[in-house]
Amino acid sequence: SPLRECSIDIHPNARWQQNGITVAGGNGEGNGINQLSCPWGSHVDDDQTVYAADTVNQRIVEWKLGTTNGQTVAGGNGQGNGGSSIV
Questions:
Q1: Tens digit of pLDDT for each residue in 3-46?
Q2: Core-most of 13, 14, 37, 39, by most CB within 10 Å?
Q3: End-to-end Cα spacing for the chain
Q4: How many domains does the chain have?
Q5: CA angle 38, 53, 23 (to 5 degrees)
Q6: Domain span including residue 34
């Protein structure tokens, strides 16, 4: 059974031999739609869509299979308690 969820804190400077394909991120730290900043947790659904909690940017980003840019599906409007914010 493939890994479905991950909640491991991986150090930003971690290195290992890569035998796979980068499916999300890989463009350095930042707030661009193809970047993450301190991701904390991820999920892969049945359609192989990757969801990542992007903590510094206070958003949830999804990458559909085969895409190079993500899409903000929640938050992304800064800290707050409104319907468009993630606390």
A1: 555 566 778 888 877 777 776 667 888 888 888 888 888 889 99
A2: 39
A3: 34
A4: 1
A5: 85
A6: 1-12+20-73
Residue 60 lies in a domain: yes
- CA–CA gap between residue 61 and residue 41 (Å, rounded): 11
39 part of a folded domain = yes
Q: Which amino acid is at 8?
A: I
Q: What is the pTM of this model?
A: 0.64
For residue 51, tell me if it sits in a domain: yes
* 57 assigned to some structural domain: yes
C-alpha to C-alpha distance for 87 and 83, rounded to whole angstroms: 10
Whichever domain contains 25, its CATH number is: 2.40.10.500
Q: Which of 48, 67, 53 is nearest to 9 (CA)?
A: 53
